[in-house]
Amino acid sequence: MIEVVDLCKSFPTQFGLLPWLKHRGRLPRRTALRNVSLEIGRGELFGLVGPNGAGKTTLLKLIASLSIPDRGAIVVNGIDAVQHPMAVKRQIGLCIGEERSFYFRLTVRQNMEFFAALAGLHGRAATQRIAEVVKLVDLAQMTDARFDSLSSGMRQRLSLARALLADPPVLLADEPTRGVDPVHAEAIRKLLRDELVTRRGKTVLLTTNLLEEAWSVCDTVAVLNRGAIVTSGSPRSIAARFKRRLRYDITIDRLSDALLARLRAVGGVNLIEPESLDDGVALRIDLEPSAHTLTDLLRALSANGTLVRDLRSENLRPTDLFGEDEGPSDGA
Q: Which of 2, 58, 78, 253 lies at a 20 to 30 A Cα distance from 273?
């Protein structure tokens, strides 16, 4: 249903005439997405997990044809999103967090009537559809309340209801449970999983920074960090990878180019960038906890008389995929 191939997107970091003249028309840019590729099947609930600033919202806006990629292809239900953006928009319902396009002085019903008209719904058909979607998100009792009287969680649920007005085959939901109380957050997850995907066969792309949320409801999960896909697969397969791996923090007295090459040649070893210390070098290494792999690692370390001053291990967790640096924030 959704295919993303080698997608790249960047944004200028400076604006205005003076920066433009200073850089001779080539303003410095910040990369938001780097060579992102995804395939999302029809009737699948796909989770995009990542820390704040990973590029999740930027990716959703590109798929929804609200922005144009620098490079790459996006195909939604067989339609090229770059060549035919209006046709793609008719296939998609977009629920973006921190929604600001509702009219604050209008009631819930009046807001929904306005957006229903934009979606081509009028009269009795619009009334029936509005009643259905506000009931789905448990806001039927709030239809006569002004938008500015709603809590942040209610506004989030109303944004989800608006995305479903035209009954699109694809729903893009950007952190739909953010700011929602635990009871209604669970209800939204159940709505996405049981009602929209299982019962109605819709394709849902859900972004979240809550690993537990993605693990509990998604068929497939991709981890996005600093604009790039780190790993993807079923929640069970991703969790299994981390159960089989350990992270070693090792301090040695010195690190030569020859030793660095030997370490990288050890099978099953992922060597993270070494860090120089006052009394040596710190290494962080991920590997499968087998006697064979660990033996090869220790042999490589001691091959030229390297002194191992400290060695500690811990289980590698899925959250370690995010890293300590969350990277730049999402573009507009």
A: 58
pLDDT in tens, 252-261: 888 888 888 8
CA distance 299 to 293: 10
Contact (CB, 8 A) for 112 and 177: no
Express each pLDDT in 56-101 by its tens digit: 999 999 999 999 999 999 999 999 999 999 999 999 999 986 667 8
- pTM reported for the whole predicted model: 0.73
DSSP string for 155-212: HHHHHHHHHTTT--SEEEEESTTTT--HHHHHHHHHIIIIIIIIIT--EEEEEES-HH
Range of the domain at 231: 2-240
Q: Are residue 253 and residue 232 in the same domain, yes or no?
A: no
The DSSP code for 227 is T
Looking at the structure, tell me whether residues 109 and 137 fall in a common domain: yes
Task: Compute and round to an integer the Cα radius of gyration of the chain.
Answer: 24
What is the Cα–Cα distance from 190 to 46, expressed in whole angstroms? 14
Furthest CA-CA distance within the chain: 83
